Amino acid sequence: MRERRRGLRLSLLTRWTALIGTLLTLGMLIALALEHYFPKNPGLVIGVCLLCVIPLAIITIRAELQRMLSLFRALTGTVTSYQDGDFSFSLHWPQNDELSDLVAAHNALGDVLRQQRLDLVQRELLLDTMVQNTPVAMLLVSESGPIVYANIAARQLLNDGRKLEGHRLDEILTRVAPELLEALARGGDGLFTTRDGEEEDVYHLARRSFNLNGRKHELLLLRQLTMELRRQEVQTWKKVIRVISHELNNSLAPLTSLAHSGAELVRRGQTEKLPQILGTIGERTRHLESFILGYARFAKLPAPRIEAQPWQPFIEQLGEQVIFKQTGEAPPEPGAFDPAQLEQALINLLKNAHESGSPAGEVSLEVRKLREGVRIDVQDRGPGMSDAVLANALVPFYSTKRSGTGLGLALAREIAEAHGGRITLSNREGGGLTVTMLLPLA
């Protein structure tokens, strides 16, 4: 390729050298002819030669340069077209020289830009089709107020399917539900509910601000969650019914059998086994009562009554109800929490640690103060959890135990979140599980 380009440069140089050589040769021939007729007047000979050669040289060089200047003007025009987004032009140069190489490179650039523009148009068409047909209502609003873009869902939700572009957002919002106005006034993302008679619709509002063409814009996303929440609600109720039905069957079937056996023994006059049968019935009844109360506590968890509580007395009182090893020293500053609810949450976590198969002496509890809050760690040396169990352990009614209700961790999570905190689970190095509860400072 380098040798080919060198050859092209030589072809252009050769053509100009041949042109200059031809003009010089012509001048010499004219000079020789005139010298024959005017041997004693060399000045006249030179003058006549110049008068003959210079106009020819000017005409020839101008004709040669004219084509090159036309090519340069064409190059300028195509570059201007590229700047305007028009990539349909291409150039042609008949000579096999350096300029043909330049023209070929220019045409190749045009082909690349044309293909990129075509790909961009296709992607924009695909994106616009997706945005227009998404069920999420999308509004792009400029800083000055007018709506720049709205998809079909936004038009149907806010303007009965009519065009929204060009209208001011505050004018459109005067015709929508007041709950949407309240959600926009609160700022940020969040859920809100609209009511039309007895019908309720739940929406999620998301807002994002960014600069577009040097001006501030805001993107509003409105997603209707009513149907999705109803499907999730139905699935949750089905799961609750399955769990309750399973537990009731497990308890009532033995009770029925024991009651029948007791009645048969009474009929035969063999009453010596009745205390054992009645004791078993009482145990199953207490288990069923505990099961039902667990669901009731989860469903009717009241708002926490937060008050200042010293940590060490609270931990000592907790130790009277369940066995654990305290790790480290409790924070000297009092915490802010509902003692009854937090005690219930930690009892659930500690009982889970014991039921994991961990040695009782390896179940520990640690409370320490962090810069952003208080961290409570409950640790054990059981088998830990698989990734699938870790992902679902905090979901209500999820349990890997045969007789588990799946409410212990869920109730602890509910209590932590009601206090403005959260719960995380992680496997320990060397085996076991760490359940971490983070609570905000007072």
TrEMBL record:
rRNA-binding in keyword set: no
SMART domains, A to Z: HATPase_c, PAS
InterPro entries assigned: BphY/WalK/GraS-like (IPR050351), HATPase_C_sf (IPR036890), HATPase_dom (IPR003594), His_kinase_dom (IPR005467), HisK_dim/P_sf (IPR036097), PAS (IPR000014), PAS-like_dom_sf (IPR035965), Sig_transdc_His_kin-like_C (IPR004358)
Pfam families for this protein: HATPase_c
Subcellular location: Membrane
Molecular function per GO: ATP binding
Main location (coarse class): membrane
Domain Histidine kinase: 243-442
Keywords of the record: ATP-binding, Kinase, Membrane, Nucleotide-binding, Transferase, Transmembrane, Transmembrane helix, Two-component regulatory system
Entry's transmembrane regions: 12-32, 44-63
Membrane-topology annotation of the record: Multi-pass membrane protein
Keyword Kinase tagged: yes
Enzyme class per UniProt: transferase
CDD domains hit by this protein: HATPase (cd00075)
Enzyme Commission number: 2.7.13.3
Identification of the protein by name: histidine kinase
Organism (species): Duganella lactea
Native organism taxonomy: Bacteria, Pseudomonadati, Pseudomonadota, Betaproteobacteria, Burkholderiales
